[in-house]
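re: that complex we talked abt at group meeting.

here r the seqs, copy pasted straight from the sheet so there may be weird spacing, ignore it
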Amino acid sequence: MISVEEARARILASIVPVGIEIVPLSLASGRVLAEDIRARLTNPPQDVSAMDGYAVRANDPDPRRVIGATAAGHPFTGRIGPGEAVRLFTGSVLPNGADAVVIQEDVARDDDLITVRELAQPGQHIRRKGRDFNEGDVMVAANTRLTPRHIGLIAASNHAWVPVRRMPVVAILATGDEIILPGDPLAPGCIVSSNSHALAALVRACGGQPLLLPIARDTLAAIAEAADSARHADLLITSGGASVGEHDLVARALASRGMVLDFWKIAMRPGKPLMHGKLGEMPMLGLPGNPVASYLCAVLFAKPALERMLGLHGAPPKRVAARVVSDLPENDRRADHLRCKLITADDGQLEAHLHGMQDSSMLRALADADAVILRAPFAPALPAGAAVEVIRLDDLGL
Amino acid sequence: MISVEEARARILASIVPVGIEIVPLSLASGRVLAEDIRARLTNPPQDVSAMDGYAVRANDPDPRRVIGATAAGHPFTGRIGPGEAVRLFTGSVLPNGADAVVIQEDVARDDDLITVRELAQPGQHIRRKGRDFNEGDVMVAANTRLTPRHIGLIAASNHAWVPVRRMPVVAILATGDEIILPGDPLAPGCIVSSNSHALAALVRACGGQPLLLPIARDTLAAIAEAADSARHADLLITSGGASVGEHDLVARALASRGMVLDFWKIAMRPGKPLMHGKLGEMPMLGLPGNPVASYLCAVLFAKPALERMLGLHGAPPKRVAARVVSDLPENDRRADHLRCKLITADDGQLEAHLHGMQDSSMLRALADADAVILRAPFAPALPAGAAVEVIRLDDLGL
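got the structure back, here u go
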């Protein structure tokens, strides 16, 4: 059995980033930028007004004569001379000759003459050319997951097209004679396939494109043929059949197609049987069949793998500090992941309340959990009130 | 000027939830469930084994004779009598007559006889019928934003179709003679439209469907006609033209189409000009033209409005505690939102580092910010090290 950290490192080492595609700006949010985006213009393009008011020469005496006005898209093209002013608005280009803007609330206007109530300082209320960015500046760096703010920045840089990593195709294979598709008629002894659908949703949420393979029956031939359908995927994830029981055919079936097995057991609970290997160039992850273990292994291993494919780092899920409200026993050699609810206590600290049933077949308790408490191998017993680290599933959105 | 809280309450009061559509399970993640999902089956459907091993009668003496085996989807249909055992695997239905499971590691097998090394307790390693859920149980409640875990739960409940709120259509209108679309040729004095593209991405991230209207020129007729194109949207958001300057035509143009104005000024910085009204049945939000104000008003007002349309509560963005590392001056009567970076200090606390330039026209500084520090109206001056509340933009994914 290898550790969670070693397993993740070995999985990531088998991953290469996928290629690049061009998408329209409108569809780029949430995607991972593949190349730096540089500004195609300078902003502001000239010195501009930061307020609605009048462009003036700061040191001129009052009253001043208004000799023109700007409007959005229609700059004033003349020049301000001694004792002159030009009406302008936020964002208007500062007319030649002006060195300050006075705001309209500070001005008394009588026909074309204005008097300024507050002393003007040279440079006031002017946004200088390039204050936000200059042509050629890197606006968004490659390998950034794009948010709506980045989309605004790329738009302002005058780009309509965005180079992003294409969505990695993740083939998902569920195996088992007893498995049916959701909504299909239920015979006695049957189980509805749920892990593979949760996995597909997780793959999509992480920026991948799921390819849900037909359920393979429990024969070597059926599983091997299903793997053939996955040949052009970027990653194959199998669900179930990864342990060493008599009915665990996945490893043997894939071996018949040339899979090189890396490891198949990790020191983790829930989730001991986790298989990793390569089928030709394609990495494969064999997740345990049990729902909680399947989901946690996806969060701990498949999510970083997808991120690495997208050119990101593939860091483990973020941990935050919490306070456990009940005693925790000493842990054995397997890293444990205890499902819990989080409550913000009166002192502002997060309190972790363990679910009564930690049975890893319990899908419903998993859906209710806010977080998992991390228990390192051989972690000592902890009293109620002790500090623990948790992974917030609610914040992950997964 | 009304407060941020009153503005949000008045906006939410103008919103009704949108209708329901049916989507396939594979496309339901991230959508908001419109009706309770109830289990169509019981899980486990019978008492089943929690381990790979043998079904036995706990109090029988060893050795026991193995009279059969189960396999996934192929239950053992006989009955276990005195001194008998049946080979079975995790999830196998417990054969009639058995009252315990012994795990394979604890068993010595010699041909069809087994000897159990550990004393068996009645009920051990059995998952009882319905332990996870029972037919008819509410598995996921209406008005839940679905995550991959919910998708697993809905699949396990044997549903292939999911009733969700349809995506609210949000018409986005940018106005201005000087505005061009990203990538279009740039003439002097022009500005590339960026707010509306950031807004469209934000609408999509919140579960809405953006409808990006053509840019309206600065005439009453052009803006009124653009509003006509938005007639069947669920919400109209305008970008820019919301303040009281001479070129702010939006209110007048929409009034000519019958808009009932609710308010147009809030006690907030950046973002004072925020307009809210109704055009027939359609609510409208007029966001300020300045990029940082536009974005923050979208996070504080448009996001809750969209959530309310989806049947969610529309709560304000979550706040967390942080420690500011520099002095903050006393605040005036407008709620302030200071852009900052967050760093986790050695003691585990979040430190908020203010951006040097809080100029609200600075798109690039906004994209770099991790959070905004909230400063209530008339908040007193704070020394470096004081506690503040921040909205984490990084965690929002916006």
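couple things i noticed - Chain B touches chain A through 92 residues (CB under 8 Å). The radius of gyration of chain B is 31 Å.
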